[in-house]
Here is the input.
Amino acid sequence: MRRGAVRDGGQGAAGDHSGLRRTLGFRDLVVYGLLFIAPMAPVGVFGTLDATSGGAVALVYVVATVAMAFTASSYAQMVRVAPQAGSVFTYARKGLGEAPGFVAGWMAMLDYLLIPAVAYLFSGIAMEALVPAVDRWVWTALAVVVTTLLNLWGVRAAARVGFAVLAMEIAVLLVFVVSAVVVLARDGAERDWLSPLTGDAGFSMAAVFSAVSIAVLSYLGFDAIASFAEEVTGGSRKVARAVLFCLALAGTLFVAQTYLVALLTPVSSAELAADPAAQGSAFYDAVDASVGTWLHDLVAVSKAIGAAFAALAGQAAAGRLLFAMARDRRLPRVLARTDSGVPRLALLVAAVVTMVAAVWAAQRDDGLDHLVSVVDIGALTAFVLLHASVVGWFVVRRMDGPPDWLRHVVVPVLGAAVLVAVIAEAARSAQVVGVIWLGVGLVVLSVQWGRTRPDEPAEGDGKG
Here is the structure.
């Protein structure tokens, strides 16, 4: 191993040599990934996707899974090169250099800090619907406190509790699947059996791709698995397998549930398109009409708890990104401290940011729209730099011998092209926020650039 490279998590700041501890197995990694994604993520966006795609909502998730597989493949390539906590921040530094690495980490930070806020708010909204006497911001704040305490307890303990929550979510999903199959066998389908794949009123590939630009956002979170690379037993190959497995499993669950609910939906995709207000509740409306209110309530409770623990996984990943960037002197060094193998200060900073954003949004009628409109630009931009880092490391720098042209050129180039198309389809407000955040990051980078030489490796990193 090169002198100065990180070994088992490297050093913390200010003489703290404890680093991060290797306590996670393959199952734990998959739990964190699926918690962050949420097995029933399509529930909230089903109506929008159905209306946009002309009824071909299951096909949308098939295409979206294939599209995100390009990104998962690039993660699998780079985690073997740099099995460190910084994830895309570290990968871009290795493949592209210090400045692009900082930009990748900075843009990913926007996503990692705000996605948990969205999840906490979803939890608060769901709990307020079940207990209207308590305001949503109270439930939101309570969810932040509970999950933060679990993260501070330690990654292993949080993974154990997360596994129980994930098992509950999977059980509720299975109840829905079984109930839907029984209803379809007894009463038949409301739409043609192939319509979730072909559309209920004619097929349009343009409409499908337009919906894919929304559906890929359901998958954000599988990449958080790479943030735990320094805490997994068994090496980087286990992380790479977990990333790919998590994406494949999530895609299968998404396709199955959207296929079934599309068959149960009593209104057409054209009617949903003409009534935007009905799109948000379309999944629940289909369940109410075909199965009953009891399943609606069960799904709502599952979403309330599941969203809070999706935020737990996101907060844990955000804390490790802050830890890694601080360890490499791109954020205040104090954030690189660890205590018994847990980056508690970085986790607390991430928790405070998400608490402020989530509670602020919970007190506004349009708060959720504001958050959702900006959370994804950061991740998608970081993913583009991830793909570029694969080309940079394996093809331009040829650090691991002759490149594999399929894995190291074709896949990352196609993956980047898909992501650029999704960014182009994003809301203009989200694009503006992304540009502003990028501008702030470039200012921070320019200040740091004046303090250290561009070719000077940061602590914990060896020159690739």
